[in-house]
Amino acid sequence: MRAIVTVIGQDRTGIVAGVSTRLSELDVNIIDISQTIMDGFFTMNMVVEIEATEHFMEVKTNLEALGESLKVDIKIMNEAIFEAMHQL
Questions:
Q1: Where is the signal peptide (predicted)?
Q2: Which residue range is the domain that position 64 belongs to?
Q3: Which of 9, 36, 42, 51 is placed for a possible disulfide with 72 were both Cys, Cβ 3.0 to 4.6 Å?
């Protein structure tokens, strides 16, 4: 399954490394990535691929915990739900 990951927070060193390393540890493939800094705030959007749908909740929980340790907000959403919301 594919999913959308968003990361938002104060800009500082190690955010991209932390998130990409954790995704790798969870066997999640980064398909596309976009990042920018807006007025001191770091923002990153990723399209990722998760091998098994049942693995999604583990990835979500793990990323939320990582966000707390990195002091950023990390959200993940199933791409199918994201697309359905934007077709209404």
A1: none
A2: 2-87
A3: 9
Compute the C-alpha angle 72/4/77, nearest 5°.
Answer: 85
First to last CA, the chain: 22
- For residue 40, the domain's CATH number is 3.30.70.260
H helical segments located in the chain: 15-25, 56-70, 79-85
Closest CA relative to residue 46, chosen from 12, 10, 70, 82: 82
Q: Are strands 41-50 and 28-38 parallel, antiparallel or unpaired?
A: antiparallel
User: What is the number of domains present in the chain?
Assistant: 1
